């Protein structure tokens, strides 16, 4: 099946700006945790962060990165030696407060998503911490979790740190969740099918995936016939034990598609970089070529090639918003992205002002770029 570009999914900012937003949020959190002067908008010298680009997944100089986002980070002259300092803008501080309130109010919801994620591992009910950390941004877990998971989860007795067979630290769930259906945990697909009267929540029921064809995407007749047969196969819940299931055949593929559907439904933007999901193969019983499942089911998933990466999107979350529950952090992330866009306007205005003829009656404030210990950088440099 040939890949078909869909302008609608390629234009969703909450998906495609998320990659840019992640290091900004990490830097914002670093300012708050490192600054000794919260009354001065969490100001820190550039030397406190200039050598930490790798920690924040920034592949350019940190000073240059900070100057790319003046709506988040404001530069000023420090108290000593005229060195550049940075502080958070008032808008960034206000959004941070809103984010913290959401974490406090919806902590149970966010941790329930984490629990479901771990329970997809089948009878083992555990996942390595390094795997959870790699998908922490998509799950919407706060940075406090990565610093000390045990301390963060201390009040929740159902989580436990364990030693795994690979010598890795893992996080296990000691009790299963229940949706009130004979003590069984149901997937989003099962809940929606039960609500519409298509199934009762029992085992081996045939549940069809909602399909959302992109405009201009046409499947060959033999593929349509195969898809009809695929839809009639029994649905295998991602929370069921998969150890006895054959790894080949259409039934196994239906379990894989169902698991990917449920996984993306738990994420903040209901999407993820496809390569980030490859670490789950061993622990969730996925085939070696699990990435092919996205390509073979273009009516369920969309693959976007923006930002020089491949992002898998769950179509249902954006085509039928009543069926997939939004993540608590989704709205505040959209506000962060809107603030990120303000940086483009600020930098554009600076370029316009700097291109005007020099006026001796209006001398510019000293440019701090030349005093940065990392070398001169242009404030309007792009990524």
UniProtKB/TrEMBL annotation:
One example GO MF annotation: hydrolase activity
Annotated region described as Disordered, given as residue ranges: 363-383
PANTHER family in alphabetical order: PROTEIN WHAT'S THIS FACTOR 1 HOMOLOG, CHLOROPLASTIC (PTHR31476), PROTEIN WHAT'S THIS FACTOR 9, MITOCHONDRIAL (PTHR31476:SF13)
Name of this chain's protein: Ubiquitin carboxyl-terminal hydrolase family protein
Pfam hit, one: PORR
InterPro entries: PORR_domain, PORR_fam
Species, as recorded: Forsythia ovata
Superkingdom, natural source: Eukaryota
């Amino acid at each position: 099946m040939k890949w078909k570009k869909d302008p609608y999914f390629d234009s969703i900012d909450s998906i495609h700006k998320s990659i840019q937003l992640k290091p900004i949020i990490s830097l914002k959190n670093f300012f708050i945790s490192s600054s000794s002067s919260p009354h001065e908008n969490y100001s820190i010298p550039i030397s406190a962060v200039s050598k930490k680009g790798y920690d924040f997944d920034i592949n350019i100089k940190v000073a240059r990165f900070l100057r790319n986002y003046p709506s988040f980070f404001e530069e000023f002259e420090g108290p000593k030696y005229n060195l550049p300092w940075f502080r958070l803008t008032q808008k960034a501080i206000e959004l941070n407060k809103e984010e913290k309130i959401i974490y406090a109010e919806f902590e149970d919801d966010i941790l329930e998503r984490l629990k479901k994620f771990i329970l997809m591992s089948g009878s083992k009910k555990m996942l390595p911490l390094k795997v959870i950390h790699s998908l922490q941004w998509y799950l919407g877990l706060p940075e406090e979790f990565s610093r000390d998971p045990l301390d963060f989860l201390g009040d929740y007795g159902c989580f436990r740190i364990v030693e795994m067979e690979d010598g890795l630290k893992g996080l296990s769930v000691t009790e299963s969740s229940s949706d009130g259906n004979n003590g069984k945990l149901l997937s989003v697909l099962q809940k929606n099918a039960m609500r519409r009267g298509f199934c009762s929540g029992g085992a081996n029921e045939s549940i069809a995936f909602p399909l959302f064809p992109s405009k201009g995407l046409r499947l060959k007749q033999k593929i349509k016939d195969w898809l009809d047969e695929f839809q009639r196969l029994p649905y295998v819940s991602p929370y069921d034990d998969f150890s006895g299931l054959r790894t080949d055949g259409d039934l196994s593929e239906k379990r894989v598609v169902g698991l990917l559907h449920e996984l993306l439904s738990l994420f903040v933007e209901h999407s993820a970089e496809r390569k980030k999901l490859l670490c789950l193969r061993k622990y969730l019983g996925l085939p070696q070529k699990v990435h092919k499942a996205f390509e073979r089911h273009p009516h369920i998933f969309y693959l976007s090639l923006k930002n020089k990466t491949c992002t898998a999107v769950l179509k249902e979350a954006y085509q039928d918003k009543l069926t997939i529950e939004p993540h608590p952090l989704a709205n505040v992330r959209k506000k962060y992205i809107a603030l990120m866009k303000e940086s483009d306007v600020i930098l554009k205005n600076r370029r316009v002002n700097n291109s005007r003829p020099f006026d001796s009656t209006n001398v510019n404030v000293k440019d701090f770029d030349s005093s940065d210990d990392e070398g001169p950088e242009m404030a309007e440099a792009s990524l």
